[in-house]
Design goal:
313 residues, alpha/beta, 2 domains, 8-stranded mixed β-sheet, 10 helices, 8 strands, 16% strand
């Protein structure tokens, strides 16, 4: 007789005191149908300013298979995911949102793909219910992950995904303070697929992602898991140095052919400002990498846990 597999659900929580109970109920109802699995749920409070932690405490009191984790301060969604992954022990781990937009009642579609032999499965949406700003951000993220992290062009990335245990074990080896979950999954395996699911309207409130947070997330992911930005900077530096050299040759020849032609102070200053700006960009990029190395050497934490419920200390 085959061993019953366990599914661990990981849900990062922020401003979800009203939506979280519905998400948990939906998971419980669906898993009662999937009798071939046991399951538990990890609710990770990312220092939400509302009563999300109290909601998690109430849910943990009602159900023994719900585990609660509370951060000491806000560390971000990806740090919350890492905390849940690190405490999970399921054969399969499913990550989803706390706002009800990711349909927990379609989790069987993701699990079936894992059973077919895929290592990771991302939910894809035909019609997304995000704002125009979030949809634009998703498209930019799609382009950047393809360029910087070598994501397959036909693979859609979303916050609703499922992975096998060995993928989780590889992901949680990452101890640095800048986790980027997409990069960690792509680092572990390329045996990934999509499965279409419904994307619902947000039940309450607005997305916690601002332009500043999205830019920070992209920059974090691409500097933490790729050296391509440095290579692009090097290529740009070589290219502009070549252009500067050619422009200098052109200026000398022009002066030799016609000594009366002025050298052009404004053109020279424009070139200096442009190339000076490029140099500062390159130095800033290198400084970002050096700074991250420095922070890693100082053992800056991915997250700090203030409270655990139904988990060993």
């Amino acid at each position: 007789m085959d061993r019953i597999k366990k599914v661990s659900f990981v849900i990062p929580c922020y401003r979800s005191e009203h939506t979280l109970p519905h998400v948990v109920t939906e998971i419980r109802e669906k898993m009662q149908e999937l009798t071939q699995y046991t399951y538990d749920i990890f609710l990770v409070n990312d220092a939400s300013p509302d009563n999300t932690m109290e909601t998690i405490q109430d849910l943990c009191k009602k159900y023994d298979n719900i585990k609660g984790i509370g951060f000491a301060r806000n560390f971000g969604q990806h740090a919350a995911l890492m905390a849940g992954l690190r405490h999970s022990d399921g054969d399969y781990v499913v990550c989803l949102d706390d706002d009800g937009q990711t349909p927990a009642d379609e989790v069987d579609k993701l699990l079936n793909k894992l059973e077919e032999g895929f290592d990771a499965v991302y939910a894809s949406y035909e019609h997304k219910q995000h704002s125009a700003f979030r949809n634009l951000g998703s498209k930019v993220n799609e382009l950047m992950t393809r360029m910087m992290l070598n994501k397959p062009a036909n693979l859609y990335i979303s916050s609703y995904f499922a992975v096998k245990r060995f993928v989780v074990e590889d992901m949680i080896r990452y101890k640095n303070s800048y986790p980027y979950v997409i990069g960690l999954v792509l680092r572990a395996t390329k045996n990934i697929t999509n499965v279409p699911v419904c994307h619902r309207e947000r039940e309450e409130g607005n997305s916690g992602y601002t332009l500043k947070k999205l830019l920070g997330l992209w920059f974090n992911g691409f500097t933490a898991f790729s050296v391509k930005p440095l290579r692009i900077a090097t290529s740009l530096g070589v290219g502009f140095a070549g252009l500067g050299f050619l422009y200098g040759i052109y200026t000398i020849i022009k002066r030799l052919v016609n000594p009366n032609v002025p050298m052009g102070f404004s053109a020279l200053m424009a070139a200096l400002v442009f190339f000076g700006g490029m140099i500062m960009i390159m130095l800033g990029l290198i400084g970002e990498y050096v700074g991250r190395i420095y922070i890693s050497m100082n053992n800056s934490p991915q997250y700090v846990i203030r409270e655990k419920i139904h988990l060993e200390e």
